[in-house]
TrEMBL record:
<dbReference type="InterPro" id="IPR051972">
    <property type="entry name" value="Glutamate-rich_WD_repeat"/>
</dbReference>
<dbReference type="InterPro" id="IPR019775">
    <property type="entry name" value="WD40_repeat_CS"/>
</dbReference>
<feature type="region of interest" description="Disordered">
    <location>
        <begin position="1"/>
        <end position="57"/>
    </location>
</feature>
<keyword id="KW-0853">WD repeat</keyword>
<feature type="domain" description="Histone-binding protein RBBP4-like N-terminal">
    <location>
        <begin position="62"/>
        <end position="129"/>
    </location>
</feature>
<feature type="compositionally biased region" description="Acidic residues">
    <location>
        <begin position="140"/>
        <end position="158"/>
    </location>
</feature>
<dbReference type="Pfam" id="PF12265">
    <property type="entry name" value="CAF1C_H4-bd"/>
</dbReference>
<dbReference type="InterPro" id="IPR022052">
    <property type="entry name" value="Histone-bd_RBBP4-like_N"/>
</dbReference>
<feature type="repeat" description="WD">
    <location>
        <begin position="276"/>
        <end position="309"/>
    </location>
</feature>
<dbReference type="Pfam" id="PF00400">
    <property type="entry name" value="WD40"/>
</dbReference>
<dbReference type="InterPro" id="IPR036322">
    <property type="entry name" value="WD40_repeat_dom_sf"/>
</dbReference>
<dbReference type="GO" id="GO:0042254">
    <property type="term" value="P:ribosome biogenesis"/>
</dbReference>
<dbReference type="InterPro" id="IPR015943">
    <property type="entry name" value="WD40/YVTN_repeat-like_dom_sf"/>
</dbReference>
<feature type="repeat" description="WD">
    <location>
        <begin position="323"/>
        <end position="358"/>
    </location>
</feature>
<feature type="region of interest" description="Disordered">
    <location>
        <begin position="125"/>
        <end position="164"/>
    </location>
</feature>
<keyword id="KW-0539">Nucleus</keyword>
<keyword id="KW-0677">Repeat</keyword>
Amino acid sequence: MPFCIPGRHAMDEDGDPGPPAPEQEDAPMEDAEEDEEGEDAEEDTPAGPSEVFLPGRQLEEDEELVVDESAYVMFHQAHTGDPCLSFDVVRDRLGDNRTEYPLTMYMVAGTQADKAHKNSVIVMKMSNIQRNKKSKEKDSDDEESDESDDEEEEDLPDLETATMKHHGCVNRIRATTIQDTPLAATWSETGSVHVWSLARPLAAVDDPMVASAYARDSEDKKAKPLFTFKGHQQEGFAMDWSPLKAGVLATGDCGRHIHVWQPAEGGTWHVDQRPYSAHKGSVEDIQWSPSEPTVFASCSVDKSIRIWDSRAAPAKACMLQVTDAHDSDVNVISWNRTDPFIVSGGDDGKLCVWDLRSLQSGKPVALFKHHSAPVTTVEWHPSDSTVFASGGADDQVVQWDLAVERDDEAAAEGAAEGAEEDQKLNELPPQLLFIHQGQEDVKELHWHPQATGCLLSTAHSGFNVFRTISV
């Protein structure tokens, strides 16, 4: 079950400073909605002390964690059967900067089934995504209780899916749009990279009539990719579509090679057979520059981050590099959309923020060591240039805000009062806004680019979709 630590600088829905960070009770989430018998029993039992849970603390035998629902504007879960360890948000035509509920979101994900032939690309539509309800006192009137139950059923989100067969586990999947045609690229464990049209499955999740026909037509589920590249010598994970030049794609493999794709006529691609190969180990992630159409960044298990210019010959295209960006593998990077910053996460559990104007100094402008296991995902907020989110193998999704500074006076007062809980909270980086937990082995997260403040994350235990009071 999910649980969280809201940050000390929580914001309410309108962006104004919110109430003090709510606390968590040492009670299981399943007990949050107790029956009347449980409530009666609770009246005779003194309530135990509540406190904020900090990751790393060992729970006592009689303690369990419960989600503090007041810390979320919205929170929902979704499951797809086989785990989908990579996904992407599909942009829609419902408008940008959406804050009105209920929300609708579209996603595309790839499965990691136990057998290669059982894998699929799954297109999902999540609709009727409601805000969290404010707590209400239960009414003893049975009729009113029945009405309340009916309302709760109506408030549950709807999930529509359409699948396409995919040979091999999907290592990574990324979506884009070319001339109003929605596409997705997939990295297969077989070593091939495919490009798929999402037009038909998206129509299926939108229209019940199309969905019925789609379900009957096995050819839809066995749709062939528009294009396949088999030039990589090994499987890989690194992949990114250019945000500035439609159809331009970069893919990197575990054999240290990167290939750049250019769209060609007839819905195909020309892939340069000359690889970018300055890395000395597996290429783990790639990010195109949001401001320069020929520039992209990559990171690797060789501990380095490199900046490339695709106008140069591949052998000479590496323009900047940090050779020891982390103490071990650099797993993920994200390029800030408005400022010249890249944030990276590694196997060392560190998050480093790099200023491209001083990259060659080899020193990050900010470094956070909060995660207690490898960082597996990181992404800047799509519109707030100081906010990013990270996730890792320590089962945490963390929201950060670089604009927040420590209030030394308040920290000193807390230390003087000697409150153990306050002292522990003061040990956290002041830029840490919120910790969301409850998923097992977080693999990937994305901010929704059109639904303000909404985060989506996937793990072995399924998807979480939420918005916190902090962002």
